[in-house]
Design goal:
This protein is 72% helix and 4% strand. Helix 1 crosses helix 15 (369-382) and helix 9 (237-252) crosses helix 12. The protein has helices spanning 5-13, 18-52, 54-61, 67-100, 108-140, 144-167, 181-192, 229-234, 237-252, 255-285, 297-310, 312-333, 337-347, 357-363, 369-382, 386-397, and strands at residues 174-175, 200-203, 214-217, 224-228.
C-alpha cells in the first residue's frame, strides 16, 4: 500500500488528546492577545513617565558639556523605571500565566531574581545603544534613521558575540552533554558538519521553562548549539538527532547572520517611520521634547516598539523561512522524518499545531506543527528507507 503523507500527518496529530489540543489553543490564543495588552501597558507606562517629569529632573542635573553622559543618565533612568513599572505585567505573563499552563516550574523568588538581573543588564547595555542613536540624530540630521539601522546591526552583532560567554551563563548552566550514546551521536553529527564539539552544550533550560527546546546562539568563534535538559530527558535518541540536525542547519546555513541583516533593514524602516510620526505621538503623550532631545526618550521608544509590533508578520515570515530551511537540512542530512515529527509533537503543548494560514502568517515564528510534520512525511514518501525502496523496486520488476 502506498505511503500517504496526509494520513501519516493526521496519525501524529491524533496522538494529542482533545484536552491537550484545547489547552494548546487557549495558551496560544492568549499569547496573541498579550501582544495587544503589552502595547497598551507600554502606552500607559510611557504616559506615566512623561507626566512624572522625572526625566526632565535627571536631564537638568547633568551639565550640557557632557552631552553623551547626559543622554546615558536619562536613558538609564528611563529604562530602569520603564522595566519596574512594567514588572507586574511581566510577572503575570512570564511567570504566573506560564505556571498556570504548566509551562514553567520556576519558583517566583528565582524568577524575580533573574528578572532583576535582566533589568539591570538590559538597562546598562540598552543605555549605550540609545547614546549612539541620539548621537546620530544630532550629527547626521535627516538621515539619522539609516545610520541608526547600521548601528543596530553592529550593536546586535557585538551583543551576540558576547552573549554565549558573558550573558547567558548568568542565567543558565551550560556544560558538555553527559557521556553516552546521545553525546556520541550529537558529537558525530557536529564533526560531520564541521562544528567543533566544544561548541555543543546542554543547559538547564528546565530552570525557566518546561518547553522542549534547543537553540543556536552567538556568532563567529562564540557561536554554539545548546540543547535544553528538557529535550534530552524527554526525547528518544533519534529525536535528539533530528532536533540537533535542525539546530546544526541554523548554524551551517548562517541564519544568525541573516537575522542580523534583516534586523538592520527593519530597524532602518522603523526609525524612518518614527522620524515621520514622532511629533504627533509626542503631542498625544503631552511631551514637548523634539526628536533630538533625550527628554522625549519615552515617546521615542514607544513609537519604535509600536512599529516593530506592526512589522511582526514580516519578521515572522522571515523567521519561518529559516525554520523550514533548518527542517529541510535535518531531513537531508539526518533523514529521520518520523523522529523529527515525534519531536515536533512535543512542541504542540505550547504552540497550537492546527493554526490556519492567516493566524500562522500574523503570529507564528515557526510553521505550524501540522505543516512541519506534513513536510517531513512528504520527505519520507519521496525518500523511503533503503530496505523499503528495495522492496518497491522488486515489486515493480515482477
Amino acid at each position: 500500500m502506498a505511503f500517504d503523507p496526509a494520513a501519516a500527518t493526521q496519525e501524529y496529530i491524533a496522538t494529542l488528546s482533545e484536552a491537550e489540543l484545547e489547552l494548546a489553543r487557549s495558551y496560544t490564543t492568549g499569547n496573541h492577545w498579550l501582544i495587544l495588552a503589552g502595547l497598551v501597558v507600554s502606552a500607559l507606562v510611557t504616559w506615566l513617565i512623561v507626566k512624572s517629569g522625572l526625566l526632565e529632573r535627571v536631564f537638568a542635573r547633568v551639565s550640557d558639556r557632557w552631552q553623551n553622559l547626559r543622554v546615558y543618565c536619562v536613558a538609564l533612568v528611563f529604562l530602569l523605571l520603564n522595566s519596574l513599572l512594567s514588572l507586574p505585567f511581566a510577572v503575570y505573563t512570564d511567570w504566573w500565566r506560564e505556571s498556570q499552563y504548566g509551562r514553567t516550574s520556576q519558583p517566583l523568588a528565582d524568577y524575580l531574581g533573574q528578572s532583576g538581573l535582566s533589568i539591570v543588564l538590559s538597562s546598562v547595555i540598552g543605555g549605550l545603544l540609545l547614546v549612539g542613536v541620539y548621537f546620530l540624530i544630532r550629527k547626521t540630521g535627516r538621515f539619522w534613521w539609516a545610520w541608526s539601522g547600521a548601528l543596530m546591526a553592529a550593536f546586535t552583532a557585538f551583543t551576540l558575540l558576547l552573549s554565549p560567554a558573558v550573558i547567558e551563563p548568568l542565567f543558565n548552566d551550560f556544560k558538555p552533554i553527559p557521556e553516552g550514546e546521545v553525546r556520541d551521536a550529537v558529537y558525530a553529527m557536529a564533526e560531520e558538519a564541521g562544528i567543533p564539539t566544544d561548541r555543543v552544550f546542554m543547559f538547564d533550560g528546565s530552570r525557566q521553562s518546561n518547553n522542549f527546546t534547543a537553540n543556536v546562539s552567538g556568532i563567529g568563534g562564540s557561536a554554539r548549539i545548546a540543547i535544553s535538559d528538557v529535550a534530552l530527558d524527554e526525547a528518544s535518541l533519534d529525536e535528539v538527532k533530528a532536533v540537533t540536525g535542525h539546530e546544526i542547519g541554523h548554524y551551517v546555513l548562517g541564519h544568525v547572520w541573516r537575522s542580523v541583516m534583516v534586523l538592520s533593514v527593519m530597524a532602518m524602516i522603523v526609525f524612518f517611520l518614527t522620524d515621520r510620526t514622532y511629533a504627533w505621538f509626542a503631542r498625544k503623550f503631552g511631551s514637548d521634547a523634539p526628536l533630538s532631545d533625550v527628554r522625549g526618550i519615552a515617546v521615542l521608544t514607544f513609537v519604535v516598539l509600536l512599529f516593530f509590533i506592526l512589522a511582526t508578520p514580516v519578521t515572522n515570515a522571515l523567521t519561518r523561512i529559516g525554520e523550514r530551511e533548518a527542517d529541510r537540512y535535518s531531513l537531508e542530512t539526518i533523514n529521520l522524518p518520523d523522529a523529527l515529527s515525534g519531536a515536533l509533537i512535543k512542541t504542540a503543548e505550547y504552540r497550537y499545531p492546527l493554526a490556519g494560514s492567516l493566524e500562522e502568517t500574523i503570529f507564528y515564528t515557526h510553521p505550524s506543527v501540522e505543516r512541519r510534520i506534513r513536510t517531513a512525511m512528504e520527505w519520507k514518501a519521496a525518500n523511503p528507507p533503503e530496505a523499503e525502496a528495495g522492496r518497491e523496486t522488486e515489486a515493480l520488476a515482477q
